[in-house]
Structure to design on (876 residues):
């Protein structure tokens, strides 16, 4: 039975909705007509193969590759911004030892002690167009123990340094919450130990994962990917519909292998589930991953590792609203409060595949599946138009302007109005065939 | 180097916190002294083995086994409450056909049509002590199309029936969100299509998973478990630290095998990560799972499946606060808004292993790691004391009374104050050794 017939049968079973049929049918039959535009998979695969090989050779991608490879030495005083790097436990431990010894010497010489902490104030952060990400500048503030204003924070800093030292010596990983609980009375609330942990990361010039303090994971991955999680070999084509949970500690991930042609980054788990159940990655070899909404650190680190090691193009499937774009920006440029670690957390050159504001008309998404933007949406959208990372991509500016002009948004799931598998059977294949990403 | 020495070394590295040391040290050294009480693992394993075999033979467990096996036939009019059951697609489809044919006949005979929908009002729900769960009684309300008050809802019901029919014919699974988007204009907002979906589930006498409408998953599992997810064989001892994401569609899970002695149900992902990284399941053969907070439907279905097929005891590790207990109650007795499906979603006879209010003194959790209960906490705690499912377990009542008297709560992570691995190295082994669950 054809999909069309199936849908017709389904519609017939819903007698009460017939009053709205004429309009919905027009959109639906147009949407179905797009199916006939699809070329054979072999032809689409050829497109994808050229995309994948271009990803290693084009000038833009070369810049990205350079970006991914380049790390200024973390303590290089000539660099105009702070770059933290992954460090092994021995090296982080010895950095802590050096800091503590310096403090001890300072105390013995009668000068008390003070930490020099890079300032993470907004005024010390800047977006660098060359790097295409937010970085932290070099301004530091002193945190002397012998000062009423900073005594507490200096104490907290010393305590966090000692705790990180203990974690590294045991060779284990802990969460920020664990860290907080080792001394609730001192830290007061978790936001304080978290903030100081970020300070310590800057002070030591290493990433938070090097400190073995991890965030809880929520991302999942399926598709043409094999890797080792803490030594266990994981074949992501054999992870059913649920997928493999992305490990919280990226330094236990190794042996990444793949025959995928691209990475498909998905905003929501509903779309992820559709793609996993339909085994989309077997039709078009790809790696599919989602952070289920706002990206967490573990998923960002994992995506970056995939990009660095496999050099695959990354295509993003997000909602057509300001938050979809904002999520893209976090993956690509990082978030402000972790700007010091932007080099390790960000993945440059992500293509916006869909759902884009222009898709709504192009695919004739029915009016009733579009949602009016709220005042807050419009505010966020306008703010995004001012962001450097949006401005430098003309296509993105146009799309965002379209969104703000029409004042309409839509979720990925809106495509379900053409049939539950429209996403995997028509929309995505057509997008790939037409190389319709920006 | 011993753990004690390590901790001492760590403490020495944190010079500024010395003022609080004496008290913390007393608790810490007591906590450490508990380590010496631990018998060899072989002896603890013997305890667990007897627990596991008891789980198949004790009278209480027999009742549970009966409970798990017994399903009143879903349409049995003699039963005093509604029981929905898992049904295969063919059977659900034919039930829908019958409903629609009845409606058609009714229309042709000039009487219009009306759905008889089981009422899901609180007054139609009751906790049955014999069954140890919340059930839905038989009261129904009519939903005629030819009535201004119900015309819309009857329309929505017909539409949802038709959509479910379409999903079943395609043999796929969709999310509630997908369903909503097929007709946004009719449904208005998702809470309406969700509510009608629950109605349809009751009307058809089948579970929501039988309708192939799934919730997004957030649970993860590791440990001594092998199962097939959509045909892919998953070995949960080889899922690294991240674990395997629990599949959203339980009917694609098959071939469950395990050599575990118990199932460890964990409230939070931080504790899950600790257990996974320390490979706790290799020392004490178990299956470890978490829903990362409030349990979702997929995790509850999965736990129940494990319990039914493996007949293992289930031990729960939750925060020592009213929400920890509330989470236990959802696993055990179900939530009110899905009472019609409580037989399929609940797992009876879960033991409360920890962290229990009495543990705080028993393990001398330092004062600074305990948190004062808020007014809202106290309110929730008092409400729980009135719940039948708490009342019937004397031990639980005592613990809850202790919590309310001391007005203190604590998270699982509070145990980190004795060292990050105290949970896996001392607390849990000692609990298991002492059979300290209620």
């Amino acid at each position: 039975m054809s999909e069309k017939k199936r849908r017709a049968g389904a519609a017939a079973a819903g007698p009460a909705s017939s009053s709205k049929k004429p309009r919905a049918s027009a959109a639906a039959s147009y949407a179905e007509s797009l199916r006939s535009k699809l070329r054979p998979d072999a032809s689409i695969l050829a497109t994808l193969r050229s995309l994948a090989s271009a990803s290693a050779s084009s000038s833009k991608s070369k810049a990205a590759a350079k970006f991914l490879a380049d790390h200024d030495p973390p303590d290089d005083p000539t660099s105009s911004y702070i770059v933290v790097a992954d460090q092994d436990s021995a090296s982080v431990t010895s950095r802590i030892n050096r800091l503590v010894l310096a403090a001890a010497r300072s105390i013995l010489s009668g000068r008390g002690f003070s930490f020099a902490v890079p300032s993470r104030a907004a005024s010390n952060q800047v977006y660098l167009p060359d790097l295409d990400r937010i970085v932290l500048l070099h301004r530091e503030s002193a945190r002397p123990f012998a000062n009423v204003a900073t005594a507490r924070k200096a104490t907290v800093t010393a305590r966090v340094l000692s705790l990180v030292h203990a974690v590294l010596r045991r060779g284990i990983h802990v969460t920020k919450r664990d860290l907080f609980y080792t001394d609730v009375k001192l830290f007061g609330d978790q936001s304080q130990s978290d903030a100081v942990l970020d300070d310590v990361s800057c002070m030591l010039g290493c990433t938070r994962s090097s400190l073995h303090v991890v965030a809880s994971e929520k991302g999942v991955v399926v598709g043409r990917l094999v890797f080792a999680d803490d030594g266990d070999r994981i074949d992501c084509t054999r992870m059913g519909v649920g997928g493999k949970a992305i490990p919280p500690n990226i330094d236990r991930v190794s042996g990444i292998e793949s025959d995928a042609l691209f990475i498909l980054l998905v905003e929501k788990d509903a779309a992820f589930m559709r793609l996993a159940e339909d085994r989309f990655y077997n039709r078009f070899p790809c790696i599919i991953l989602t952070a289920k909404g706002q990206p967490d650190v573990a998923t960002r680190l994992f995506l970056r590792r995939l990009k660095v090691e496999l050099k695959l193009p990354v295509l993003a499937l997000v909602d057509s609203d300001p938050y979809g774009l904002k999520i893209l920006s976090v993956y690509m440029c990082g978030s402000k409060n972790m700007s010091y670690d932007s080099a390790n957390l960000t993945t440059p050159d992500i293509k916006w595949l869909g759902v884009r504001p222009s898709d709504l008309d192009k695919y004739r998404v029915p009016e009733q599946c579009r949602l009016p933007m709220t005042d807050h949406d419009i505010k966020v959208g306008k703010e995004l138009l001012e962001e450097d990372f949006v401005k430098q991509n003309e296509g993105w500016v146009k799309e965002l302007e379209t969104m703000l002009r029409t004042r309409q948004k839509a979720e990925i799931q809106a495509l379900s109005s053409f049939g539950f598998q429209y996403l995997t059977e028509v929309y995505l294949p057509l997008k790939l065939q037409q190389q319709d990403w920006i």
About this structure: Chain B has two domains: 34-69+216-433, 81-214. Chain B touches chain A through 87 residues (CB under 8 Å). The longest strand of chain B covers residues 114-118. The longest helix of chain B spans residues 89-108.
